[in-house]
Amino acid sequence: MVERVTQPEGAEVVIEVWSDLGCPWCYVGHHRLQVAIAQRPDADRFDIRMRSFELNPTAPQELETIEKAFIRAHGGTAAHFLQAERQIQAIARGEGLAFSLDRPSANTFGLHRVVQYAGDQGRGFALFSDVQDGFFAGTLNPYDPDALAGVAESVGLDGQRVREILASNEYAERVRADRSEGLALGATGVPFVVLDRRVAAPGAQKVPVYGQLLEQVAGPVPGCPTLGSDERHRHLSLPAR
């Protein structure tokens, strides 16, 4: 067993989430994490910060169908793609999440650069969440600069600044550095969640497991029984970022 180390009561707890737009398990995992946080009366203690992790840096800039992107990345046939999509669609819908099979696919580097800018303004998670929600609902093409700028404005960011970033190479090194840091911490894919630089959880965990992680770094919810630990998670010993 690893000794439980928690933040002082009421102290801010930083949660870093390495993710990529088109990852359906990231979509599900983000919502599960938010549910686990919302179940705590001290939910405002937790600061979720997005970190960039391109799953496919060589993906084309031009739009293509997700079926074509899936087959190029994983092999198989259209039937294999549809089976995988319907499985995760059922899981997402079972948790109350919209999930359209009619989504575009393209390189996500530009979006990651915009999320870096949003993070500097304290709006990284808000922007990424709204973009990903619209993307999986089939109501948003995040590869359209105007559409992305519109979402940015809706969360309090400068839409014109978003267009400028997309037309340049700003934040490129930070996107690459995020991915390298995630790999160094043990990420082999996404979602990859690091809490308080002490505990790392790969994959889309269930809500109760995220609850265990929150308790581990922030202490138990007052008046509630202590949750059991889950040894699938890596324990880190790192300085704060």
Automatic annotation (TrEMBL):
Residue ranges of domain DSBA-like thioredoxin in the record: 14-210
InterPro entries in UniProt: DSBA-like_thioredoxin_dom, Thioredoxin-like_sf
Protein name as annotated: DsbA family oxidoreductase
